[in-house]
Amino acid sequence: MNLTYDFTGKVALVTGAAGGMGLATARAYARSGAAVVLSDLDGQALRTAVEELTSAGHQARAVPCDVADEDQVAALVEGTVEDLGRLDMAFNNAGIMIPLADAADEDAGAFDRVNAVNLRGVWACMKHELRQMRTQGSGAIVNCSSLGGLVGNPRRASYHATKHGVIGLTRSAALEYAPRGIRINAVCPGTMETPMVADMIAKGELDPEAAAAEAPIGRLGTAEEIAEAVLWLNSPAAGYLVGVALPVDGGYVAR
């Protein structure tokens, strides 16, 4: 059973919203009455997602954006406010995976790219969202870290470094902005049934049966389960949660 929220009159922004956890969260925001701005690099998939939402009677906008480019991020947030008047909730979800590599052999270009999207991208999004939210004196942000922000795994050093960094950003900014009426938390998905994970499986980089067995719950998670966690963290129901890195991982880190 899904919880229901009333976000009527609220504005939500989701990056990496063309598929997977981002799209599931955008759908959940929309069903809860929020006006939703969906952003992604994949313009065609983004338009398809927005058409789905608007045809169902929801208020949604598509804004292509590369979160690694701060100027594009600034324009994304400014455009959201110009169009919809405010910004109440954000899910900074855009992220990429890079090929597995021995830590001694990792390519510097891959390191720079994964940092540009997964860490600098979250930093830029949060920075510009906070500029609007501090003017309002209200808001809630959820940054997407990962199970990889809480543990280490062989051959994933650079990716895990970015996700650990997201938690550091989240905790520090949360302490700074909680007194100003703005809550910031992070969600840490385990191995989920998303396009990114499907691509890893197709490349032989992940054994889905082994991944499911590593979670005490005995299965992979779903994008919708992340969406439920994000909406809860952004809602008044989680009003006393500040600076939390919430594992949604089927019990992996509880072992």
What does this structure look like?
- This protein starts with 10 loop residues before the first strand and ends in a 7-residue tail after the last strand.
- The protein has helices at 20-31, 43-55, 70-84, 108-118, 120-136, 157-177, 195-202, 208-214, 223-234; strands at residues 11-15, 35-40, 60-64, 89-92, 139-144, 182-189, 192-193, 221-222, 245-248.
- With 255 residues, the chain is α/β, with parallel strands linked by helices.
- The protein has a single domain (11-246), classed as Rossmann fold (3-Layer(aba) Sandwich), CATH 3.40.50.720.
- Helices cover 45% and strands 16% of the residues.
- The model has no long low-confidence stretch (mean pLDDT 96).
- The protein is globular and about 50 Å long.
- The strands form two sheets. A seven-stranded parallel beta sheet has the order 3-2-1-4-5-6-9, sandwiched between helices. A two-stranded parallel ribbon has the order 7-8.
Taking Cα atoms only, what radius of gyration do you get, to the nearest Å?
Answer: 17 Å
Average pLDDT, rounded to a whole number, is 96
- What ranges have pLDDT less than 50 throughout 5 or more consecutive residues? none
Q: What is the CATH homology-level superfamily? A: NAD(P)-binding Rossmann-like Domain
Count of folded domains: 1
Structural class: alpha/beta
Family: Belongs to the short-chain dehydrogenases/reductases (SDR) family.
Organism: Streptomyces reniochalinae
Keywords: NAD, Oxidoreductase
Protein name: SDR family NAD(P)-dependent oxidoreductase
